[in-house]
Amino acid sequence: MARAAHGVVFVDDAHMMSRSVFYDEPVAFGLGDIAIAVWSHDKHVPGPRGAAIVGRQEIMSAIMAQVFQFGLEAQSGHYVAMLRGMEVFDPEPIRQAGALARALFRRLSAQCGTRLYQGGPGVSFSADDFSEVVYERAGTRQTVLVPAEIAITGCFLLLQHHGAITIPITGYPGAAPTFRLMMHPDGGRFGLDRLEQAIDDTFERTAELLQQPAAVQTLLLGED
């Protein structure tokens, strides 16, 4: 429909490599008549944090001019590191992570039902759905915390007690408040049983803090 209206079709395909391997789908330009696509070099690809932008030449010229204008182009060392990351990309670790993610999804679904979703080669709860499980564990919905705060609290507890790093830890409290565990590259080091136990323990610990906003503030933001 966008092409028929002479629109520019841009695909933000950040997890392209995991998406294409896990779901056995084409990479971005195999999906259709796309003008521009972007994907990450650090998400399931052994490259540095950065992105590749590929598109039609006439469009890329304008993009490159804008990038240089604002000084946002990658430095030469970054270019080489990203290229090497693409050259040595191996889909097999993603397949192994995907098998572990599907197995963990089956186990957790028995307890959490449709509140859990398969986020590619990982398992995920939205902030609202994570909070619903916590309310059940706590036996109450009474709290001054909003779902985003509850989910991020879970992420911090998961790090504190089990050493697992999630998005809010690497970003900041409030960044993508999804409780998401990706199995690549370290899920296999945890193992299925330990992963299941860590998630269950995190729900319990989060429920214990539901009516302790001061403790949550200290957990997320540190001491004054």
Can you characterise this structure?
The chain is mostly helical. It folds into two domains: about 10-85, no CATH class; about 90-220, Aspartate Aminotransferase, domain 1 (Alpha-Beta Complex). It has ten helices and six strands, in the order E-H-E-E-H-H-H-E-E-H-H-H-E-H-H-H. Strands 1-2-3 form a three-stranded mixed sheet. A three-stranded antiparallel sheet has the order 4-5-6. Strand 1 (about 10), helix 1 and strand 2 (about 35-40) form a beta-alpha-beta unit. Helix 5 (about 125-140) crosses helix 6 (about 145-160), helix 5 packs across helix 9 (about 190-210) and helix 6 crosses helix 9 (about 190-210). The radius of gyration is 20 Å and the shape is globular. The chain starts with 9 loop residues before the first strand and ends with a helix.
Summarize the structure.
51% of the residues lie in helices and 11% in strands. It has helices at residues 16-22, 57-69, 76-87, 92-112, 127-138, 147-162, 167-170, 187-190, 192-208, 213-221, and strands at residues 10-12, 36-40, 51-55, 116-118, 122-125, 179-182. It is globular.
